[in-house]
Protein: DNA polymerase III subunit delta'
Amino acid sequence: MKLYPWLIKPYNNIIRKYQTKKAHHAILIKTQRGIGASLLIWFISKWLLCLKPIGIDSCNKCYGCKLMSSNNHPDWHNFTSEKNNMFNVDSVRRINKKIFEYAQQGGSKIIFLSDIEKLTESAINAFLKTLEEPPSKTWFFLINYKNLNLYSTLSSRCLIYRLFVPTEQNSLKWLANETTKKNRLHLIALRINQGSPLSAKKFINNDIWIDRINFYKNLYDSFKKKNLLKILPLLKEKNSTVKIDWICFLLFDAIKFNFNEKNNLTNFDQIELIQFLSYNYKNAILDASLRTWMHCKYRLLNISGINHELLLLEQLLRWEKILDCVLAT
Structure:
């Protein structure tokens, strides 16, 4: 297992803080998914738990390194919640129990919370005291993927480290070595996934790439036949929110096309469909369409128990009304 190229500099910067005794006991990484933040924390933790580190690198030979490599180190506590489950006060009590135990290897103890969005408000309040007065040689690592300032009290007890996506050029270079698909597809996948190279790689190698092609083909056909309801079966089938993203990217591309920003298109393999939208609808109509789809996605994700099929049907009818049913042939 190796660090991704774009993580080497952040790793070096953080390790040097530990070497010079200037490291904060709690680091909160603000980033987006698909960059490898958890892997970065694992490598930093491995160095902290290494018995004989060599400069900024762990030795990979000592007992501590072997335990980390086997994911069996007793002083490495990776607290993750199952999908859709939250960290509550009881979860924090389990963390505190680990914190105040003596390190089994006699060195550091590491607490890793992989997504602070999973912390309930009561759990955060219970966790604050621990962050304020931690036992010696106890290090905390937390990740905030939403990058929102909803956890200001928690953030105030941590050192904030922002982990940005690599440059498009560096990501494309990495993807060229990681996939066998055409380089042209790499840029599309990268832009669809907000610059995340790991998500782009998964997207390229997954059937979802074929789903995207078929979805756009059916969407274009529904436009030409003046019947947007034709895409309802595809929308409700699976990955509804992902397909809403595809619609939003497409609408945004049409707006960019109207501003002559052709080099910055996301779906440049769908230029015919983008031109169709650009030529037939003004930016105000495209923008209104974009906003309604974003609101639809928000409702799907945040209203529990909502009927997805009815909501998507309502949205398609609303979209037809916005477009005023003036669909070109």
Remarks:
- The first strand starts at residue 26 and ends at 30.
